Structure formats: C-alpha cells, structure tokens
Amino acid sequence: MVWLTDTRRDATPPGDRIEALWQRPGILRMPGAHNAMAGLLAKRAGFEALYISGAAITASMGLPDLGMITIEELCFFTRMIFRATDLPILVDGDTGYGEALNVMRLVRELEAAGAAAVQIEDQILPKKCGHLNDKKLASPSDMAAKIAAARRARTHLRIIARTDAVASEGLDAGIARARLYLQAGADAIFPEALVNEDMFRTFSKAVGVPLLANMTEFGRTPYYTAKQFESFGYKMLIWPVSSLRISAKAMTELYATLAAEGTAKGLLDRMQTRAELYETIGYHEYEALDASVARSAVPDDIRAQGGD
Fold first, then answer.
1. Same domain flag for 104 and 232
2. Order of strands across the sheet that contains 188-191
3. Residues 211, 203: contact at Cβ < 8 Å?
C-alpha cells in the first residue's frame, strides 16, 4: 500500500518505537539511507529502523561534511525517507545547527518531519567526520546545555549524545563527557571513533546505558560485525554512508562505460530492472488511485528473447 492511502501506518510516536527496538534483546541494526529509494530497499531487506547520515546527504548534494547544510535540507531528506518507509529513523543532527535555541528548533522540526531520534555531537563548527583528525570540541558544559535544550523541546524524539572526545582527550574524558550528557537528559550515548575492542568494552561498562556504535568504512574502527558489537555491550549499530558509497561506485562504473563504449548493455545484469523498480516504489498502486491513468504494461525484457 502506498503512503497516499495507507491508513495502517503505525500511530505510535516514532521516538517510542525506536526506543522499544533498542530495548529488546540483541542489537538494533540501522543502515544508512541517503534517499527514499535506499530506505525502501533497506525495508525490503528486513531492517526495522534507519539512519540518516549528515555526511551521506551532504555528499549527495555535492558538498563536504563540514556542517554546511541547513535544517530545512535535513528535514527534507527526513520527511522523504519517513514518508516512503514508515520506519523509525535516527537523524544525524551534527552540532545542533547552533546553540540552545537552534537545537530546540531542530528537535521540533525533526519531529514534524517524522524522525524518531536525533544525534547531536560535541564538536564546534566547522565540524568534521568523526574519523578525521584535529576535530574541535565544544566544552562539556556547552554540549550539556544543548542536550538539556533538546530534552526540553522534545515531545517524543529520543536524544543520542555523540562524543568525539576520545580521539583528542582520551577514553576517560570521553566517558566523563558521556556521563555529563546523560545527566543533562540524553537517552543514549554514541562514542565516536573508538579503535579497538577494549575501548568499546571499557566504555560500555563505565557508562551502562544504551550505546550506539558506528561501523563506517575506511575509518578508524576495525570491521566488526553486529554480533561482535552486541558482545561489546552495544544496543545500536549504524552503517552510515554505505548506501551512498556503493551506489556512487556503481555510478562511476556506469558513466565510465557509457563514455568508453557508448552503451550500458554490458551492465544490464547489474541494474535494477524496470519491473523491479516499479515493484519497489509501488508504481502500479499509484496508477490505480486515478481512474484516468491506464495501467502501464512493462515492456518484456528483450534479453530473455536473445535480442538487442
């Protein structure tokens, strides 16, 4: 059923839904979705929640992950993906888009767009990817004030406080910040860019609340599996930019092939077919909503006929 007519969408507030998922036994796996198509495909694969990465959506806009996007742009992606999937979504809120009042507006706007949770980090602008060098940190008290403001503004949105302090200030400082952010009102903690199993386990034992792990590719964290992170004591896991990276690599090959050969025929087996696309987005269900639109007949796949 398409979202225009779906009256069976879950009426439970998204924030309540995502917390119920991370409170279950096991680990909540949240793949990144950089657009609605990615979200739909993740849902079809069986995932129950999604992650929207600031890095992924800025890259899809042709921009670097330096805190350059706006609240409205972030909400556009959130609204689009939630509308298509009806899944609870954790949204990357970067540094909160400003100070306390800006953070409060961010929370309200994201709730209106359908978000279930927001992640706010303790960097200052211009911010960086958590796995890069020389990040500039906000003071613990300034970050705690943002978390308190977010808590005051929310009605259901869960607040995940991310600390980038471990890389520059050490593990003990990161744990101390996490405890302060919890006192300020965070519901869960995201320790960024930990580099070995001992660090993950130590952080989990010291903090003792739901924790989120980041399994980004080409970063500082080794390639652990969801089961391994679960054994380290973590309740949530994201793969934030994977969907963007793999689609960008595929498009790179497509355009190179088109430029060199003048045809994409050799890549057909790696493409989603027209029929698969229409099934994913509910094309015929949309057609059925308007009697003036004739049901489209999907052309036969001429590969099966051995033709060109």
1. yes
2. 50-52, 89-92, 117-121, 158-163, 188-191
3. yes
